[in-house]
From TrEMBL:
This is YgjP-like metallopeptidase domain-containing protein. InterPro entries: UTP_pyrophosphatase-like, YgjP-like_metallopeptidase. It comes from the Bacteria. Transmembrane segments: none annotated. It comes from Sinorhizobium saheli. Pfam families: YgjP-like (PF01863). Residues 30-238 form the YgjP-like metallopeptidase domain.
Length: 241
């Protein structure tokens, strides 16, 4: 994401409905609108673009914005907050594992069949268990994301894209981004999703190397590379809410 953007708000109406979007002035050429899985709407607009023009263009997208908001409202409730105790269910690469916390003088995490085992010095130390599991997810993310990137990036490289660096880090509200500097950033938590959904996020961001917004060009390119991308997008948002 662009650093330190100026944040404003803009109201979008459709019939009797209205929502308030966060407007961010950033260094980019085209306007981009995102509806996040939380239901928040963000508009990324060129720094010097006139506010009335932004309002007009955002208003044209109102039917799409409210369709996305309606789809979000129909999804299952978000996963309850994890407490990191034995018996909880945790995801890894799209598979559910039953968490088992065991005492160990050598703290680490491993898979044992259908169990995700945390070996901890104190099994009741929830922050410690959380850190151990997060470190395990980071290691798996580094391995899996780069493997999947190598597999799905080929069509974009053939179109002339120079292989971009892949950055893996914790992100608060996004599964990935393509930065103005030409880097692909992927959220560590995406390692909880199945490989086919990870592939969708990577392709989504690589398509932004050619088209910075979610307009017709971007949709055509992504649809050519991944015809079922919209289905995968919905599955991702339902799985990792």
């Amino acid at each position: 994401m662009d650093r330190h953007p100026l944040v404003e708000q803009i109201e979008i109406r459709w019939g009797e409905r209205q929502t308030v979007a966060e407007l961010l002035r950033v260094e980019r050429r085209a306007l981009r609108i995102d509806v996040k899985p939380t239901g928040e709407v963000a508009i990324f607009a060129p720094a010097g673009e006139n506010l009335d023009e932004i309002q007009r263009r955002a208003q044209r997208k109102a039917p799409w914005i409210f369709a996305q908001l309606d789809a979000i409202s129909r999804r299952p409730n978000a996963t309850p907050q994890r407490r990191f105790v034995s018996g909880e269910s945790h995801l890894l690469l799209g598979r559910q594992y039953r968490l088992s916390i065991e005492q160990s003088d050598d703290p680490h995490v491993w898979l044992d069949g259908g169990r995700l085992v945390i070996g901890a010095r104190c099994i009741k130390d929830q922050p410690h268990c959380r850190r151990l599991l997060q470190a395990f997810y980071v290691l798996r993310a580094r391995e899996v994301f780069r493997q999947r990137f190598d597999i799905v990036s080929e069509p974009f490289l053939r179109k002339g894209l120079n292989r971009p660096p892949v950055i893996i880090r914790k992100m608060a509200k996004r599964w990935g981004s393509f930065t103005p500097g030409g880097r692909v950033v992927l959220n560590i938590d995406l390692v909880r999703a199945s490989p086919r959904l990870i592939d969708y996020v990577i392709c989504h961001e690589l398509a932004h190397a050619f088209y910075p917004d979610h307009g017709e060009g971007w949709r055509t390119l992504l649809g050519t590379v991944m015809p079922d991308w919209e289905k995968r997008k919905t599955q991702l948002e339902e799985t990792l809410r």
